[in-house]
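Researcher: I'd like a candidate sequence for this fold, 587 residues long. If you have to choose between options at a position, lean toward the conservative one.
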């Protein structure tokens, strides 16, 4: 028997588990990105949208584990070999998995809680609020400063007294108010008379959009600009002066980001418990498949450990039943393999010892056969002797009346001599079976032909050939035919009334030899268990008028063909004879 198929299945299961583990890691990375991004953006509930999709893998793992548990329960109910030990191994592996995962879970939860508390208890909120206050104050002070400068006498004097020299005017204005980016002067009809400063701050707008004395803030070219207007009379001419301050680049964007970050932080701080629960749910959700994978792996590993032990237990059972040809095959090189090899060696030694014992038993059996043969020969010799004496006595005393006893006496002598002849012929067949001459035997055809010879005499018995395969053996066709003739005859005679005789063949391997196992099953009365040890003994028979040499001759032929024969029987249920013949040429 070989555990190769089970080992292959276990390796396939382990490879599948590794692939599922890799898939789980990929899903964790994908969902972690989505979930954490949602939590970071304040939309923590969006993480729940991905749960239905992620449920597929845990449900698959749970279903697989439930299937294996049901399978294990059935094995325990059937009391299969190793099922109890397998249960203990799975419980042990599961306990170790949970024992190792609980501290990690506690550590992760504590770490998450500590980090979130550190985030919300630090000065981040104050820093954000301070940054926002600075931006607001800068914007307000800029607008206040430009208004103050616009209404100052310094500004008015510079505009009115330096109109003839624009560069000088700009230097004086910029020296008095360095934050100013540009100054533009318009005449009464709204045309630009003078512009000094940064070109990208040129108003280029309708003066009616900006009232005198007003301070406005607008966005142009992606940057924020603060403007104010001041109207003057110079030499009877109306002048409008527009002062412009260009705020720092990305000032609005930075202010908006600070505002948004402050709002998000305030919201997250208010939802601290929900934030923590979402992270814990995420951790638990993806820790569960890891535990399930560990449990599933425990099933696979326990199966790998249990199989050699189960095979050994089955082998021990077969050996106890008398099948010393049973061997356990293994492809591993571990301690269990050494145990299996030791068992096979032990069985080989037992088989050798059994052969020696069988030889001794055969010698004893031959001694018993000789005694019984002498007894069987002695029985017919007595009436032969008495008949001869009667003839002789009659011949001497009254020869004229010898006819009255001659015929009965001679008939008795002929009958007993015939019995002796048949007895000696059977003994000769049993004692000196000719060595089988090998030839090709079409097993299916041979069994069918022999069976049909008896079926005509037993019309109420059904023959079942569906289990027969086209197998070609090497052996003595006449002897093999005699084997099946004897067994099939016994099967027919064991059935009273209607019944079935079924045939089946299968190929098995023991060691390096391939065998054809033939089964002949009848629904007859069965064989008494008390006869089990004597059924193949010479001159033992349970049939009236039987010689007791049929099954011994069958066993002798099978043995000469390097095969084995045994049977299983139950009273009032039926009997199955098993024959194993080698497929290769025997020597």
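Model: Candidate sequence:
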């Amino acid at each position: 028997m070989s555990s190769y198929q089970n080992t292959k299945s276990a390796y396939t299961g382990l490879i599948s588990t590794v692939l599922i583990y890799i898939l789980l890691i990929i899903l964790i990375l994908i969902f972690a990105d989505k979930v954490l991004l949602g939590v970071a953006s304040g939309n923590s509930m969006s993480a729940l949208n991905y749960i239905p999709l992620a449920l597929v893998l845990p449900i698959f793992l749970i279903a697989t584990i439930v299937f294996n548990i049901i399978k294990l329960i059935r094995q325990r109910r059937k009391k299969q070999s190793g099922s109890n030990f397998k249960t203990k191994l799975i419980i042990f592996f599961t306990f170790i998995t949970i024992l190792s995962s609980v501290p990690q879970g506690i550590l992760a939860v504590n770490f998450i809680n500590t980090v979130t508390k550190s985030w919300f208890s630090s000065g981040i909120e104050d820093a954000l609020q301070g940054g926002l206050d600075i931006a607001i104050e800068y914007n307000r002070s800029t607008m206040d400063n430009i208004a103050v400068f616009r209404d100052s006498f310094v500004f008015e004097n510079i505009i009115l007294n330096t109109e003839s020299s624009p560069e000088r005017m700009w230097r004086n204005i910029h020296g008095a108010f360095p934050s100013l980016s540009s100054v533009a002067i318009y005449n009464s009809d709204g045309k630009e008379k003078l512009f000094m400063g940064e070109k990208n701050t040129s108003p280029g707008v309708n003066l009616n959009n900006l009232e005198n004395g007003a301070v406005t803030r607008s966005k142009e070219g992606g940057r924020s600009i603060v403007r104010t207007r001041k109207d003057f009379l110079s030499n009877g001419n109306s002048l409008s002066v527009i002062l412009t301050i260009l705020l720092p680049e990305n000032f609005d964007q930075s202010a908006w980001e600070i505002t948004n970050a402050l709002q998000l932080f305030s919201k997250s701080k208010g939802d601290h418990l929900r934030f923590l629960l979402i992270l814990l749910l995420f951790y638990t959700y993806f820790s569960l498949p890891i535990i399930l994978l560990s449990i599933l792996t425990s099933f696979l590993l326990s199966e790998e450990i249990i199989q050699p032990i189960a095979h050994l237990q089955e082998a021990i059972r077969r050996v106890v039943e008398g099948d010393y040809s049973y061997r356990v095959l293994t492809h591993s090189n571990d301690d269990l393999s050494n145990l299996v090899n030791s068992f096979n060696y032990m069985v080989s030694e037992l088989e050798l010892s059994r052969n020696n014992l069988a030889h001794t038993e055969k010698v004893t059996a031959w001694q018993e056969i000789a005694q019984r043969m002498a007894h069987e020969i002695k029985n017919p010799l007595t009436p032969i002797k008495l008949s001869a004496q009667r003839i002789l006595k009659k011949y001497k005393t009254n020869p004229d009346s010898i006819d009255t006893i001659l015929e009965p006496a001679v008939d008795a002598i002929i009958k007993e001599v015939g019995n002796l002849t048949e007895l000696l012929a059977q003994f000769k067949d049993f004692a000196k079976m000719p060595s089988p001459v090998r030839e090709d035997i079409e097993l299916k055809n041979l069994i069918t032909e022999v069976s049909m010879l008896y079926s005509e005499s037993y019309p109420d018995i059904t023959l079942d050939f569906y289990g027969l395969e086209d197998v070609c053996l090497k052996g003595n066709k006449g002897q093999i035919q005699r084997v099946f003739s004897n067994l099939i005859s016994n099967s027919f005679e064991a059935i009273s009334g209607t019944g079935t005789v079924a045939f089946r063949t299968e190929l098995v391997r023991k060691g390096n030899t391939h065998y054809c196992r033939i089964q002949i099953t009848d629904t007859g009365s069965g064989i008494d268990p008390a006869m089990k040890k004597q059924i193949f003994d010479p001159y033992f028979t349970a049939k009236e008028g039987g010689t007791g040499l049929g099954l011994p001759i069958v066993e002798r032929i099978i043995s000469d063909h390097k095969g084995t024969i045994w049977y299983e029987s139950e009273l009032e249920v039926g009997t199955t004879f098993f024959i194993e013949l080698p497929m290769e040429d025997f020597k």
